[in-house]
Amino acid sequence: MTPIAQTWIAGLGTAAGLGLAAGGWAYASLYPGSRIFGSALIAPNNPKELALTFDDGPNPEFTPRLLDMLAEHGIPATFFLLGRHAAAQPGLVRRIAAAGHQIANHSFSHPSLARSSEARIRQELTQARDTLEQITGAPVKFFRPPFGARRPATFRIARELGLTPVLWNAMTSDWSCPSADQIAAKLTAKIEKLNRRGRAANIVLHDASHLDQTAHRAPSLEAARLLAERYKPTRTFVRIDSWV
Ligand SMILES: [Zn+2]
C-alpha cells in the first residue's frame, strides 16, 4: 500500500459516486472491493473466521519475532512474500513454511502492476513463484498484487499462472508506524464491522517494507499479538487457502 492507494480508499465514497467517468480507473485499479478489473479472493461469509496476512517479507529481524508470537498462540497465518526478499532469506522462508504457515506470492520486486506491461507482470509473478517454489519445494497458489494495484491483465495473467488473486477487507496504515494500540484499534473496528455484516476478516499487516529492510515493524507485530489475544478465545484464525 501507498499513500496514493490510501487516499483513494479514503475517498471511495466520492469515487464510487462519480462512477467510472472521473477517477473511476483508480477506483477499479486500487479499491480492494472493486471487481471491475477481475475478481479476487477476499473473505467468505463466516463471521467467526479471521485470516492474518503479512505482506512484503521476509525480514531478518521482524519475521522471526512474528513467527515466535504466532507459535506461542498456536495460530496460522499467510505470508505474501516478495521474491527479492525471499531470495535473500531462503532459510527464513523455509522456517515460515515449516511452521505451517502459508507462503504466497507478492511479486518479485513490488512494482505497481497497474502500470506494468503484460510482459513485466508475467515476469514479476513467474520469478517470485519460481523463487518461492525452489526454496520450499511446494507449489505457490495465491498472489496479492503490490499496493492492491491491478489492471485487467494483472489478474488474468495471475490465473493463467495458476495463482488465485487475493485482496483484503481489513487494513490500516500500519507501515507508517503509528502505535501498536492505534493499529489494533483500527483493525478491531473493521473486524467488528465485518462481523456485524456476517463476513470473515482478511487482515493485512506488514512484517517488512518493500522499500527498506531496516524499516521498523515492531508496532505491526505488537498489533498482531493484540489481535491474537483478543480474538483467539472466540474466533478461528485461518490461512487464506481454507477459503477456496
Ligand atoms: Zn506490499
Q: Main traits of this protein?
A:
single chain, 244 residues, alpha/beta, TIM Barrel, five-stranded parallel sheet, two-stranded parallel ribbon, 44% helix, globular, disordered N terminus, binds zinc ion
Provide a descriptive summary of the structure in words.
This protein folds into two domains: 1-31, no CATH class; 40-243, Alpha-Beta Barrel (TIM Barrel), CATH 3.20.20. The chain contains ten helices and seven strands. The strands form two sheets. Strands 1, 2, 3, 6 and 7 form a five-stranded parallel sheet that branches. Strands 4-5 form a two-stranded parallel ribbon. Helices cover 44% and strands 11% of the residues. Strand 4 (142-143), helix 8 and strand 5 (164-165) form a beta-alpha-beta unit. The model is unreliable at 1-18 (pLDDT under 50). It is α/β, with parallel strands linked by helices and 244 residues long. Bound molecules: zinc ion. Residues 55-56, 106, 110, 146, 210 line the site of zinc ion.
Report the CATH superfamily of the largest domain: Glycoside hydrolase/deacetylase
Low-confidence stretches: 1-18
| Mean pLDDT value | 91
Domains (count):
2
Q: Give the overall silhouette.
A: globular
**What's the helix-strand series?**
HHHEHEHHEHEHEHEHE
CATH second-level architecture of the largest domain: Alpha-Beta Barrel
Query: What is the name of the CATH class of the largest domain?
Result: Alpha Beta
Please bin the fraction of helical residues: 40-55%
| Count of strand segments | 7
Estimate the strand proportion.
5-15%
Sheet with most strands: 5 strands, parallel
Q: What is the overall number of helices?
A: 10
Structural class: alpha/beta
First-to-last CA distance: 25 Å
CATH topology of the largest domain: TIM Barrel
